[in-house]
Amino acid sequence: MAALRLVGIAGSFNRPSKTCALVEEVADRAAHRYGFDRRVYDLHDVGPSLGSALSRRELDDQAKGVIDAIVGADALVVGSPTYKGSYPGLFKHLIDLIEPGELRAKPIIITATGGGDRHALVVEHQLRPLFGFFMSHTLPTAVYGSDRDFADYKVASKPLSTRIDEVVGELAAFFPGDVIVAAAE
């Protein structure tokens, strides 16, 4: 039996990135708890063809591979840095190249990062409606981390860590038989 696949996508070009660190942390905890094969990408991994492609056909193989991984995943962790109250345009462009039916009923953990609390509602006002359009199952708990929640590009605050554990636990509604590692501990 093939392992379930979890894909994380961080809508950031920066390396290192708090957004990617958050997506990695969520993906690692979910993989540990449910036994997912996990892969995390950022916009660097998508590559330069994204910015000039008007359709998926115009993407290079590297970018097509990332989109194929996203649509082929059993679950997603999506993270976005917050710029002026929303997600970056190139991140949105990547999502725009996915057909709505390709994410239908897929469980998605939505995450975001920003400099401070002013941006915290990006998960509810931007990301949740975006994936609602795709008729995806965004999990009830959304995860937002501000600068104070990280140290050296690692999750460092107890409240953020607790929220990550909460949302990872919510995946059990979709993968109840796959809670193998946590049950054995």
TrEMBL record:
Which InterPro entries does this chain map to?
Flavoprotein-like_sf, FMN_Rdtase-like_dom, FMN_Rdtase_MsuE-like, NAD(P)H-dep_FMN_reductase
Annotated ranges, domain NADPH-dependent FMN reductase-like:
5-145
Q: Name one GO molecular function term.
A: FMN reductase (NADPH) activity
Cite the entry's keywords alphabetically: Flavoprotein, FMN, Oxidoreductase, Plasmid
Note the superkingdom of the native organism: Bacteria
An example Pfam family from this entry, by short name, is FMN_red
- The catalytic activity of this protein is classed by the Enzyme Commission as 1.5.1.38
Sequence similarity:
Belongs to the SsuE family.
UniProt name for this protein? FMN reductase (NADPH) 2
The species this protein was found in: Rhizobium etli 8C-3
The organism's lineage is: Bacteria, Pseudomonadati, Pseudomonadota, Alphaproteobacteria, Hyphomicrobiales
Gene symbol of the encoding locus = msuE-2
